[in-house]
Amino acid sequence: MRQTLRFDIPFAERFFQKQFRALVLCAGSELGLEPGRFSERLPFDKEVAMNKKYIVELTDDERSTLKEVVKKLKGSSQKVKRANILLKADARGPGWTDARIAESLDCRIKTVENLRQRFVELGFDVALNGKKRETPPTPKLLDGEQEAKIIAMRLGTPPKGYGKWTLRLLARKVVELQIIESVSYQTVRRTLKKTAWVPSEQSNIG
Length: 206
Fold this sequence. Notes:
The chain is 56% helix and 0% strand. It is mainly α. It folds into three domains: 10-50, no CATH class; 60-129; 135-206, no CATH class. Mean pLDDT is 76; it is low at 1-13, 43-51 and 202-206.
């Protein structure tokens, strides 16, 4: 029995429209024309744009700022990547698809989608520079001088009656000597870990 082959006409139309659009853009590029001058006149561009909830449309100043970022901060920094994504996603410019942008810049499609959304909802500055922390970073429990004293104590002789330093013993002596008001042995561990001088938790005293 012969199987019936069903052909998705709308899908085929969109496919050939995209292929034709690519050819037109390529031809325009070879002629030295700016994509923004004629890409918006293609009859199917508006339909493609309508399928995007978050459309990136850069002003001339924003476009110049992004190009300056890419030029000055050459490399793979996140800011450069965000600048390149916005430039390529610009509906008034290249108007690349998310998939093409992701492939070109070696990032996830979700990254491109999120940046589009951030641009539309939070604005150009946030999209380019990222969101500022809503809460300040956790302050250090020990300053440089206190850390140095703990490390010096660890390298010294343990108190009488102890064969070697333990983390809990160090933490207790640090408080007794008023180096700091209070400290946990885990904080002492993290401090000593920087120098690979973390003592065993086992003492020679029973």
